[in-house]
Automatic annotation (TrEMBL):
The chain crosses the membrane at residues 12-34, 40-62, 74-98, 104-127. Keywords: Membrane, Transmembrane, Transmembrane helix. This is GtrA-like protein. Residues 13-127 form the GtrA/DPMS transmembrane domain. It is found in: Membrane. It is a multi-pass membrane protein. GO terms for cellular component: membrane. One of its GO terms (biological process) is polysaccharide biosynthetic process. It comes from Gimesia chilikensis.
Length: 133
C-alpha cells in the first residue's frame, strides 16, 4: 500500500508535507541565524529551499496533480508561491519592525498563518481540477 493510500485526505497529506517543510524551513532559518547569517537572509534561504520541497510534495503527494504539464504547473506554482513567500517575508519584516515577540515566534506566526491560506489557494488555483489554464 502506497503512502498516499494510507492518507486518503488531501488535508492530511498537506499537513504532513507542511510538517516536513516546516521542519526543514525552521532548521535552515534557525541554523543559519545561529551561524551568524543575518535574520533576513537566513529566512530567505529557508523559503527558497521550502519552495522546491513544496512543489514536488504538492504535485506528487498532496494533490496528485500530474495531468497538467510540469512546466506550466511549476510556473503557476511559482507565481502563487512567490506571492505567498513575498508576503511571508514582508510580514516577518513588519513584525520585526514593530517588535512583535521574538524571532522564533515571528517565524512560526508567519508560517502558520500562511499554511491555512495556501491549502485552499493551491487546491483551487494551482493543483485543482478547475484551475485556470
Amino acid at each position: 500500500m502506497s503512502i498516499v493510500h494510507r492518507f486518503p485526505h488531501k488535508a492530511t497529506r498537506f499537513a504532513l508535507l507542511t510538517i516536513v517543510s516546516l521542519t526543514t524551513n525552521l532548521s535552515i532559518a534557525y541554523g543559519l541565524f545561529y551561524a551568524g547569517v543575518p535574520e533576513a537572509l537566513a529566512f530567505a534561504s529557508a523559503l527558497l529551499t521550502a519552495f522546491v520541497l513544496n512543489f514536488a510534495g504538492c504535485r506528487w503527494f498532496v494533490f496528485l496533480s500530474t495531468d497538467t504539464p510540469l512546466v506550466r504547473q511549476l510556473l503557476h506554482f511559482a507565481l502563487t508561491n512567490g506571492s505567498f513567500r513575498l508576503l511571508e517575508y514582508l510580514s516577518l519584516l513588519a513584525l520585526s519592525a514593530i517588535g512583535f515577540s521574538n524571532y522564533y515566534i515571528r517565524v512560526i506566526t508567519v508560517l502558520a498563518t500562511s499554511f491555512v491560506l495556501k491549502f485552499f489557494v493551491y487546491g483551487r488555483f494551482v493543483f485543482g481540477q478547475n484551475r485556470p489554464s
